[in-house]
Design brief:
Its EC number is 1.1.1.85. Homodimer. GO terms for molecular function: 3-isopropylmalate dehydrogenase activity; metal ion binding. The protein has a ten-stranded mixed beta sheet, sandwiched between helices. A two-stranded antiparallel sheet has the order 6-7. A two-stranded parallel sheet has the order 13-14. β6 and β7 form a beta hairpin. α6 crosses α7 and α10 runs antiparallel to α11. The chain is α/β, with parallel strands linked by helices and about 375 residues long. About 40% of the residues lie in helices and about 20% in strands. It has twelve helices and 14 strands. Bound molecules: nicotinamide-adenine-dinucleotide, 3-isopropylmalic acid and magnesium ion (MG).
């Protein structure tokens, strides 16, 4: 299998965690005889610094010349006072829109070994297995008009628009129902239909799409109630389907199930080129110290093998390797608890997962050789 991957490490801990994802991909490539080719480009604050733009043309060209994009994170405190369209984050949003992926899949899987790191009681968190399907190209993030109102040189107001076209809701809803068909066959559609017209359209449209999937049950939940139930009853959810901003917020909240945002991965599909990125940001508070958790980035690489390369065995081997290393009691500082036997840094965690992966692949080879 040949796969060309554009690497965009970005800012803060982005390069640290992407290094480990690449280490895993190279290892699985060698072990299973796949030809993975990498091309690295700038995005975010480092791209503003070196090229004057958060998404240089050269970066976008490299993405379009690749089969998939693997991104670390963007954002740095020194750019925080810039207007939205000049910030590092604008590079990521422009990239998402250009690549065209509208369905952002964010799996949240509870790891038994992490029960002590979760602020939730073990009996509440255990067994939680949720797929958040976040609409990624519409809503408040992209709708026009938007801007500041300036009078006499002073900003007196600001506004954004929340707009959804029916087709935008339909296409992401299909992805959610198709995913639910392969899982526990339940979709929870999350909106604010008691207040917002866009949510009323969302609810009507999702209900209509559901008719094509009679084997999948559909429930509607208001976003405020969903936020509460995510932490009181996470096991009740299978697929959560929601709009852009609600999905952004709910996915960070869902990270508490495992105890760290550093574990969550994402895949963005439906466009010209698929985009993979951990859910977390550039974490300026820990950047440069070699302690960031690389699991979200490594698990994003696994999703890339599953969705873009259709290498299901390799993807699930990486996921098994992550689980085994956690079960053995290793943890990065964000996951540290009384159950941790050994606290490790980013590179050590990546190395341990790589070693576990090599053993898993060898064991299966030996088994099939008998
Ligand atoms: N996809 C992205 O590129 C992305 C996502 C979210 C935030 N951001 C940007 O990142 C910057 C920082 O934002 P923030 O602090 O609100 O969110 P963040 O996700 O960077 O960090 C939130 C908290 O989680 C911790 N954390 C995050 N990832 C971790 C990891 N892998 N290992 C260990 N701990 C981890 C951080 O140390 C911090 O305490 C901002 O500029 C923001 O816009 C980018
Ligand atoms: C950095 C930011 C633009 C981004 C988003 O809001 O989509 C991030 O928070 C995420 O969750 O991927
Ligand atoms: Mg976010």
């Amino acid at each position: 299998m040949k796969l060309k991957v554009a690497l965009l490490p970005g800012d803060g801990i982005g390069p640290e965690v992407i290094d480990e994802a690449v280490r895993i991909l190279k290892t699985i490539g060698e072990l299973c005889d796949h030809d993975f080719e990498f091309i690295e480009k700038l995005i975010g604050g480092v791209a503003i610094r070196d090229c004057g733009s958060p998404l240089p043309v050269e970066t976008l060209d490299a993405c379009f010349a690749s089969d998939a994009v693997l991104l670390g994170a963007v954002g740095a405190p020194r750019y925080d006072d810039l207007p939205p369209d000049k910030r590092p984050e604008a590079g990521l949003l422009t990239l998402r829109r250009a690549l065209g992926g509208y369905a952002n899949l964010r799996p949240v899987v509870f790891y038994d070994a992490l029960a002590p790191s979760s602020p939730l009681r073990p009996e509440t968190a255990r067994g939680a297995d949720i797929l958040i399907v976040r609409e990624l190209l519409g809503g408040l993030y992209f709708s026009e008009p938007r801007g500041f109102v300036v009078e006499a040189g002073k900003q007196i107001a600001a506004y954004n628009t929340l707009r959804y076209e029916t087709y935008e809701i339909e296409r992401v809803a299909h992805i959610a129902f198709q995913a639910a068909r392969q899982r526990r066959r339940k979709v929870t559609s999350v909106d604010k239909a008691n207040v917002l017209e866009t949510s009323q359209l969302w609810r009507e449209t999702v209900t209509r799409v559901a008719a094509s999937y009679p084997e999948v049950s559909l429930e509607h939940l208001y976003v405020d109630a969903c936020a509460m139930r995510l932490v009181t009853h996470p096991q009740r959810f299978d697929v959560i389907l929601t709009e852009n901003l609600f999905g952004d917020i709910l996915s960070d909240e869902a990270a508490v199930i495992n105890g760290s945002l550093g574990t969550l991965a994402s895949a963005t599909i439906g466009g010209a080129i698929d985009l993979y990125e951990p859910v977390h940001g550039s974490a300026p508070d820990i950047a440069g110290r070699g302690i960031a958790n690389p699991i979200g980035a490594i698990a994003s690489a696994a999703l890339m093998l599953r969705y873009t390369a259709h290498l299901e065995q390799e993807a699930s081997d990486i996921e098994t390797a992550i689980r085994q290393v956690l079960d053995a009691g290793y943890a990065t500082p964000d996951l540290q608890s009384e159950a941790t036997r050994c606290v490790v840094g980013t590179a050590e965690m990546g190395q341990l997962i790589t070693e576990a992966l090599a053993e898993i692949v060898d064991r299966r080879r030996a088994y099939h050789a008998v």
